[in-house]
């Protein structure tokens, strides 16, 4: 998919449906002409017919390729997995997706932390993050929220919280955010809390909070009797969850296929662990509700406080 998109992007082949998205950057001016710079953002077709959606699946591809790159059973074939990493990395760069880059950095940070611990992660991060920022550059590394598209998104969140006041329990209804505000929230969690209310938003929050807790704590511990390869997979599952969460903080993908593929993968992983007697899937009861209600409420409150402080009118 990304190979065809790149070949069309570089005009090696011509597939009209793979045409890049040309987006005018009003905050970036061409010094020679004085006109806003126009970026050609790589995209594909179908559910990936958007630079941000393509970026999300490319991040998944990079993290999965890192898993196979570390598979000692492949022997001399392991370095071949550098090829898809380079391919997906170039595709991610050409999407010019800030959320995609942050998603990748979040996933790699989670992977390093789970495998090497906090100290080594900080050292590796100090070396890796500047490299990513230098290589990416331009739109993809402009993370300011005080102006431009960043400030526009903060205002979208604020308008959503205003709407939520009219129906805080069950929300304003699915797909109503865009109808009432004009655009989606560009934050999947805010979007769900507004559209689905505190109840629906808490369920959406729990889909990621519960696996994050289970994968994050004791992820480097040994599990007697468990297939070592299955244990090696755990940090990569964690990295995919974290990457998905980070990506959704700047995009509305509440009902996207990719989002639920990651949730489904976690479900399968924990189900296998449960069948082997290493962990137990949580039962839906009052105890579970208490475990997710408090952090969900704190997350909603944190978003609200941030928006009230950051929105500029």
Describe this structure in words.
The structure is a single chain. Helix content is 63%, strand content 5%. With 313 residues, the protein is mainly alpha-helical. Strands 1-2 form a two-stranded antiparallel sheet. Strand 1 (21-29) and strand 2 (36-41) form a beta hairpin. The relative contact order is 0.11. The model has no long low-confidence stretch (mean pLDDT 87).
Q: Which SSEs are present, and which pair or pack?
A:
Layout: H1 2-9, E1 21-29, E2 36-41, H2 51-69, H3 82-95, H4 98-136, H5 148-164, H6 176-181, H7 188-216, H8 228-248, H9 257-275, H10 286-310
Antiparallel strand pairs: 1-2
Helix pairs in contact: 2-3, 2-4, 2-8, 4-8, 5-7, 5-10, 7-8, 7-10, 8-9
Describe, in short, the structure shown.
The chain has 313 residues and is mainly alpha-helical. The protein is 63% helix and 5% strand.
Biggest sheet, spatial arrangement of strands: 1-2
Q: What's the count of strands?
A: 2
The computed structural class is mainly alpha
Poorly predicted tracts of residues: none
Give a quick account of the main beta sheet: strands, pairing sense, barrel closure: 2 strands, antiparallel
Average residue pLDDT: 87
Task: Provide the domain count.
Answer: 2
List the total number of helices: 10
**Molecular shape:** globular
Helix percent reads: 55-70%
């Amino acid at each position: 998919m990304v190979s065809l998109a790149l070949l069309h992007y570089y005009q090696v082949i011509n597939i009209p449906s793979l045409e890049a998205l040309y987006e005018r950057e009003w905050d970036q001016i061409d010094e020679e002409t004085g006109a806003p710079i126009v970026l050609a953002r790589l995209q594909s077709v179908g559910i990936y017919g958007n630079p941000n959606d393509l970026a999300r699946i490319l991040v998944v591809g990079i993290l999965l390729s890192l898993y196979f790159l570390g598979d000692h059973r492949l022997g001399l074939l392991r370095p071949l997995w550098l090829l898809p990493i380079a391919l997906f990395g170039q595709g991610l760069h050409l999407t010019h997706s800030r959320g995609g880059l942050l998603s990748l950095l979040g996933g790699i940070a989670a992977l390093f932390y789970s495998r090497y611990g906090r100290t080594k992660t900080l050292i590796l991060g100090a070396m890796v993050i500047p490299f990513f920022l230098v290589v990416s550059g331009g739109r993809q590394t402009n993370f300011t929220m005080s102006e431009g598209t960043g400030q526009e998104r903060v205002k979208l969140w604020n308008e959503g919280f205003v709407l939520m006041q009219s129906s805080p329990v069950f929300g304003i209804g699915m797909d109503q955010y865009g109808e009432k505000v004009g655009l989606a929230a560009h934050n999947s969690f805010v979007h769900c809390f507004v559209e689905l209310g505190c109840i629906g938003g808490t369920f959406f929050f729990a889909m990621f909070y519960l696996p994050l807790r289970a994968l994050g704590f004791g992820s480097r511990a040994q599990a007697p009797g468990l297939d070592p390869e299955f244990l090696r997979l755990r940090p990569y599952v964690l990295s995919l969850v974290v990457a998905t969460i980070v990506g959704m903080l700047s995009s509305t993908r509440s009902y996207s296929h990719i989002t639920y593929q990651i949730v489904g993968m976690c479900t399968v992983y924990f189900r296998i662990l449960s069948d082997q007697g290493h962990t137990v899937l949580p039962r839906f009861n009052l105890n579970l509700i208490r475990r997710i209600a408090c952090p969900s409420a704190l997350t909603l409150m944190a978003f609200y406080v941030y928006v009230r402080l950051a929105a500029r009118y």
